[in-house]
Structures are given as C-alpha cells and as structure tokens.
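Translate structure to sequence.
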C-alpha cells in the first residue's frame, strides 16, 4: 500500500501529477529514488515542470481522408519549435489518430492509442525530448456528404487554418471561401448564429456611440439598425464582400457556383491565449548586471 504522504513527497520532488506519482511508486514498490527514475524515463517529471509555461505558438493543421476531415491546433512555446520535425511528427500522429476514431472531447482524444502510447503519453514524451511545453488545445472532426466539398486552407504555414463544407461546388470553390475566411476573420457563417446576448451588447454600444456623436436618443435608436447590418457584414461570412470580387458577397459567390454553404471552422494559432511579453533587452541587461 502506497501512502498518501509518500505520493505527496514524490510530487513535490518531481513536479509530476499525483496519479503519475502513484503509478511510479507502485511500479517500484515504494522506492522514492527509483520512482524518480521511473518518472524521468517516462519523460513525465521533466514535462510536468513545464506545465506553468505559456504555449501560444504552434500550428493549426487539417487532414482530409475521403469524406472525413480533422482540424487541430497544437501549441508550443516558440515558433522555432513549431517548425521542428519532431513537433510536425506529433501533429501528424494526432491528425491520423483522430481520423481513425470518433471522439468528441479533448479528454477522450488524449486517451486514444498511437504507436507511441496514448496521445497524452506521446505529448509528454515529445515535451521531454523537445524541451518545451507542448499542448494539444482543440480539434474538430467533420464528415461530408458525397455531394459536398471540403475547402481546406492553411495560411502562413499553419498560423491560420480554415475548413469549410459547401454543397454542390468543387474543392477549388470551397477553398476560395476558406481563403476568404482566413483573411477576413468571420466569427459566424450566418447572422442567425449570433446570440441575442452578443447582439444586444453590440446594439447598446452602437446606441451609446450615436449619443456620443450628439444624436438624440430616439434618433440614435433609429441609427442602430443600419449600424447593426454593418456589424453583421463584419462578422458573418456569407454577408462579407468576397475578397476576390468586392462587388459581390461570399453568399452570392457560392450561389453563382450553384452551391449552398454548410460549415466553416477557423482556427488561428494562439487566439484567446494570453501570450507572455518578453522584454529581451531588459533580460540581457539583467544577465550582464548579474541580476
């Protein structure tokens, strides 16, 4: 029987998680030093110590296999590592594994088996080998009908990835729409997807802006509707002017090609993650001064 105090002691020494510490101690019959070695061999001790670092670089990637496609975001601490072959191998393995399995959550995905153990174990091993915190942040797997086309587009080597599904068009047309989405950053496909909460918040802001411009409250109210339409054009894919022909909307471009828009998934690496702001000049001076 492994005592809780022994697990706690190993956790404090190694920085590994409680469950991993318990497993390590059970594997070596409670010997603390051997448990440390067990964790190091597994790459867990070293990886866990990086857990509080910020991984906001990395890649968004897409893989298509006939009627199935997967889009993922996998993060690293630096852009340099994101271009590393070891990191690329990790991303490819995650994509391949997700295509072969049907899971809904990151937690489920982490337990999927690869040739290198589970995805979670593989990430831990790669973290130890590469020396940076690595994080599998999000994914989505989608299936299309035979009549539909995937539009798969990666921008700047995977800084932005967009996957679309459009019925009745060629892959080239679908890719055009994905390229547009990469450039214009729509949050939604159509206005019906915008929540009432977000819409009301925007209306309130627009009304206050009009009043600040000197308009009376009743006039400001009337101005809001026109400005709401502009708001929709900014955030809804189908209402945006098409980047390749600003005279028509994306919706018109799709209709002109006998298509019907279905799905858009857009991942931008690091969006929503608070990135660490390094002051390199200050860091160098601190080293020079011995701080």
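Result:
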């Amino acid at each position: 029987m492994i005592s809780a105090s022994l697990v706690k002691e190993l956790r404090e020494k190694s920085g590994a998680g409680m469950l991993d510490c318990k497993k390590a101690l059970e594997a070596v019959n409670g010997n603390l030093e051997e448990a440390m070695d067990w964790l190091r061999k597994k790459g867990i001790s070293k990886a866990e110590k990086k857990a509080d670092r910020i991984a906001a670089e990395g890649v968004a990637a897409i893989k298509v296999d006939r009627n199935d496609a997967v889009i993922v975001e996998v993060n690293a601490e630096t852009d340099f590592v994101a271009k590393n072959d070891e990191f690329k191998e990790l991303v490819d393995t995650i994509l391949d594994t997700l295509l072969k399995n049907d899971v809904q959550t990151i937690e489920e995905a982490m337990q999927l088996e690869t040739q290198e153990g589970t995805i979670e174990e593989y990430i831990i091993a790669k973290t130890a080998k590469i020396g940076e915190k690595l994080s599998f942040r999000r994914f989505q797997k989608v299936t299309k009908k035979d009549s539909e086309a995937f539009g798969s587009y990666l921008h700047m080597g995977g800084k932005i990835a967009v996957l679309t599904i459009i019925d009745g068009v060629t892959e080239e047309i679908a890719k055009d729409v994905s390229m547009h989405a990469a450039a214009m950053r729509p949050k939604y496909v159509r206005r019906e997807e915008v929540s009432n909460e977000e819409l009301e918040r925007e209306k309130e802001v627009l009304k206050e802006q009009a009043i600040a411009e000197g308009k009376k409250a009743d006039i400001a109210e009337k101005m809001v509707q026109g400005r709401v339409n502009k708001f929709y054009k900014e955030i809804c894919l189908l209402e945006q002017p098409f980047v390749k022909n600003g005279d028509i909307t994306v919706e018109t471009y799709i209709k002109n090609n006998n298509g019907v828009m279905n799905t858009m998934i857009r991942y931008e690496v690091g969006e929503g993650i608070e990135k660490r702001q390094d002051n390199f000049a200050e860091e160098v001076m601190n080293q020079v001064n011995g701080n």
